[in-house]
Every structure is written in structure tokens, then in C-alpha cells.
Design brief:
alpha+beta; eight-stranded antiparallel β-sheet; 233 residues; 6 helices
Length: 233
């Protein structure tokens, strides 16, 4: 309903760290980012696929090469939520097979940004149950998971990589604060969000003028990762 959507948008605004300046903060206007477009993939014919393998890999943002994924200025997790806020048509899924669709309301509810606690009321001299807003902590998302297809294309005579899915990973804790494992907050169909990721720049510690878009980061393989699973019997 309308009230629920407004509440979700309010919570999303608290998650997103980017903000617009009130005056011109810079010697020139940055318009190139908004005009960027993802380069369309070349078509791969099934007849040209000599070999293929599906793998899953994890990106640990604590590794030196992956520090841009958790940069305070614009971490990837905040970029994903901003894409969801500005593009409600982007689909989210509960699994990497893209069979169970999730709504943005379901995803926000999993974050537990709103909770009820007992607060002491001096006027009533008693504890009352009050709803509070918990701050979103992007540092909780230490890993991102990718689902990829590696293909040897006979027409090109070389390997081709296609990212199929992208998911932020977080730790799961029990009521006593003990770590019970990890879970994917949601899965995004990567080809669907490529165009949106191309309009967001990542942080470049060496050059403020030239920055790679998040789509370029993934397509140029500018990250360190490890394979966690592969397709097999």
C-alpha cells in the first residue's frame, strides 16, 4: 500500500549515503557519469560454444584490491540500494536460480532497521514499548557473491566471461550474538542492472578526474576473488 511504500522509501534514504551539494563543489561540473552507458554484450551463438563452465565466486571487501567496494564515499551496497530506490522495476530474487522473486519491502524488512524496545518514560515512571530506527551499517557486508558463465567461443577463438548474478552477503547471528553462518540478502540478475551500474562511479584513490563505473569494475575484472562452487554432478 501507499503508506508502506513511503516507509520503505524513508528507510532507503537512511541507507543511501550519497547526497547532493547545495553549491558547486568542484572546479567543473561532472556530467560524464550520468551519460555513461554499458557496452552491449556481443551475441554468442550456441553453435559456437565449444566449452562452458558455471562458477560461483566471492569478493572479500577486506582485501586490498577490493577496498573500493567498501569505500566510505560510495560503497557498493549503498549503490545497489540507490538503484533499487530509483528503479522500482529492478527485480530481486531470493536464490541464485532466480525462481523466487523478492519485493523491496521484503528486503528492507530483513534489515531490521525498525525495532521496538522498552524505553523508560520519566513522566509515566514506567517503561514503554517504543519503535526506534536502527542505523544501517554498510560495514556488515564484507562479501559479494557472483554467479558466472565461462565460455570458450569458437568464433572469437577465446574465453568469454558473463556475470549472471550479483548478491551482497552478510553474516547471520542468533539471539545470543553467535555467528551462525552467511546468507545472501538478495540476488540481482546482473544483465538487468548493468545499465544502472554504468551510471555510478567507484572511488579511485589515484585520480579524482578519471573513475571507473561499477559496470567497468566488474567487466574489466578489477577485483580479487576466490571460486567457492562450480557446476558438477
Amino acid at each position: 500500500n501507499k503508506g508502506q511504500k513511503e516507509e520503505v522509501n524513508e528507510l532507503l534514504n537512511e541507507i543511501i549515503t550519497t547526497s547532493s551539494t547545495q553549491v558547486g563543489d568542484g572546479a567543473y561540473d561532472r556530467v560524464q557519469t550520468k551519460q555513461k552507458m554499458a557496452i552491449p554484450y556481443d551475441n554468442i551463438r550456441e553453435a559456437d560454444v565449444f566449452w562452458s563452465k558455471r562458477i560461483w565466486r566471492e569478493i572479500d571487501v577486506r582485501e586490498k584490491m577490493n577496498l573500493i567496494f567498501s569505500a566510505e564515499e560510495q560503497p557498493l551496497i549503498a549503490v545497489l540500494f540507490e538503484i533499487l530506490r530509483n528503479n522500482p522495476d529492478v527485480q530481486l530474487f531470493a536464490d541464485d536460480e532466480f525462481t523466487e522473486e523478492l519485493s523491496i519491502e521484503q528486503v528492507v524488512s530483513k534489515l531490521h532497521l525498525r525495532s521496538k524496545v522498552d524505553v523508560y518514560d520519566e513522566n509515566a515512571d514506567d517503561y514503554i514499548n517504543q519503535e526506534v530506527t536502527n542505523a544501517f551499517n554498510p560495514d556488515e557486508y564484507k562479501k559479494f557473491r557472483l554467479k558466472e558463465d565461462w565460455i570458450f567461443d569458437e568464433e572469437r577463438g577465446g574465453m568469454v566471461v558473463r556475470i549472471i548474478g550479483l548478491a551482497p552477503i552478510r553474516n547471520v547471528y542468533d539471539e545470543n550474538g553467535n555467528r551462525r553462518g552467511q546468507e545472501a540478502l538478495f540476488w540481482m540478475h546482473y544483465p538487468e542492472v548493468r545499465q544502472h551500474l554504468a551510471r555510478y562511479d567507484s572511488y579511485n584513490p589515484l585520480n579524482d578526474a578519471i573513475r571507473l563505473s561499477w559496470d567497468s569494475i566488474f567487466e574489466m575484472r578489477y577485483f580479487s576473488s576466490r571460486i567457492t562452487k562450480e557446476s558438477n554432478v
